[in-house]
Amino acid sequence: MQAEDSTLEKKADDSIRAALAHDDPSAIEQIWDRYAGDLLAMLQARLGSRHDGEDVLQAVFVRIVRKRHRLAKARRLDSYIFRIARNEAAAYVKMKKRGRAEQSLHDSWLAADDDSRELGDQVELLQSALLQLPAEQREVIVLKVYRERTFAEIAQMLGVSQNTAASRYRYGMEKLHKLLKESEQ
Predict the structure, then answer these.
(1) Are 121 and 97 in contact (CB under 8 A)?
(2) DSSP-derived secondary structure for 81-112
(3) Residue 23: left (phi > 0), alpha (psi -120 to 50), or beta?
(4) CA-CA distance, 9 to 11, in Å (whole number)?
(5) DSSP of 109-127, one letter per residue?
(6) Which of 6, 18, 38, 172 lies at a 20 to 30 A Cα distance from 148?
(7) CB burial class (10 A; 0-12, 13-18, 19+) of residue 180?
(8) pLDDT in tens, 70-90
(9) Do residues 130 and 45 make contact, with C-beta atoms less than 8 angstroms apart?
(10) Phi/psi class of residue 133: alpha, beta or left (left: φ > 0; alpha: ψ in -120 to 50)?
């Protein structure tokens, strides 16, 4: 099954590369369909804000359009796209540190399916605890838990080894558990 998934992903990437090489506008749409959900989850986790994640996602796609010819030649399309996203997120953080408006802690970037007050409080507590983790651990946890990605997929997206992705997840979950336990007291 995994080999079959890999073959389908390679075909999708080849199709995107061919469209990019021919300046076909559908290439950007294909990239959006394939990567936008995971990119947004990673950016929201890294930045700790839904609004900031959406803003940076738009900047990522502007950069993708500008670099479409380089992207067409990229050996690993997904790694290249996620590297663009990480770079845009880092630039955004630097810009905010230079005096832009402060991030609102009430900007919920974890979606709750239920609108109940109790669940909303739990989501807020979890979000607050996640924001206390290093960005690298937070993004792996969000991609693993909320986007249901494998460590192999996460490693590929983030340009790290599978062991690094798994370690970030494990250490992050240990810290998260400790933070949540402390908040109960």
Answers:
(1) no
(2) HHHHHHHHHHHHHHHHHTTPPPPPTT---S--
(3) left
(4) 5
(5) -S--S---HHHHHHHHHHH
(6) 18
(7) middle
(8) 989 888 898 899 999 999 999
(9) yes
(10) beta
Q: Dmax over Cα atoms in the chain, in whole Å?
A: 60
Cα(84)–Cα(67) distance, integer angstroms:
10
Q: How far apart are the C-alpha atoms of 34 and 166, rounded to whole Å?
A: 23
Q: Is 133 helix (H, G, I), strand (E, B) or coil?
A: coil
Q: Is the pTM of this model over 0.85?
A: no
Tokens linked to 12: 């999708």
Q: Rounded to an integer, what distance in angstroms lies between the CA atom of residue 25 and that of residue 77?
A: 17
Tokens, residue 74 = 């990229």
Residue 30's SS3 state is helix
